[in-house]
Design goal:
The protein is mainly alpha-helical. The protein has helices at 2-10, 19-39, 47-65, 72-81, 88-111. 68% of the residues lie in helices and 0% in strands. Helix 2 runs antiparallel to helix 5 and helix 3 packs antiparallel against helix 4. The longest helix is centred in the last third of the chain and has 24 residues, at 88-111. The mean pLDDT is 96.
């Protein structure tokens, strides 16, 4: 979530960090990451292949759905390479973290008279 924070605070006008991309990209990445982790269960020696597929498919689906969010690639990678073993990972920590970050940034960024966020919702 560190890269997201940098993008949100340094470039809140970027289309890559608008709410659709922020939530959509991370949701796609978390689902695919966990899915590939479970698909390769029992074949841990090939988990690096699962990580590659998860990140590549995440990028492809984000492009198709117009929800490109670069830090989401790491979300898919961590889901595969970490200790995740269920789709509960999509909610905790991914969507909870994104929701908290979203709320904090709505307040903090909009306190400035020079910056506003989000620029668009959908």
């Amino acid at each position: 979530m560190g890269a997201v924070t940098v993008l949100l605070t340094a470039a809140p006008e970027s289309p890559l960090v608008q709410p659709r991309n922020l939530f959509g990209g991370n949701l796609i990445a978390a689902v695919l990451g966990v899915g590939f982790k479970l698909l390769f269960r029992g074949y841990e020696q090939y988990i690096w292949v699962a990580a590659g597929f998860a990140v590549a498919l995440t990028i492809s689906l984000m492009q198709i759905t117009k929800t490109v969010h670069p830090p989401a690639g790491a979300t898919a990678f961590v889901a595969v390479m970490g200790t995740t073993s269920s789709f509960f990972y999509v909610v905790v920590p991914v969507l909870i973290n994104v929701g908290i970050l979203f709320g904090v940034c709505i307040i903090i960024i909009n306190m400035s008279k020079y910056m506003k966020w989000p620029h668009y919702w959908i």
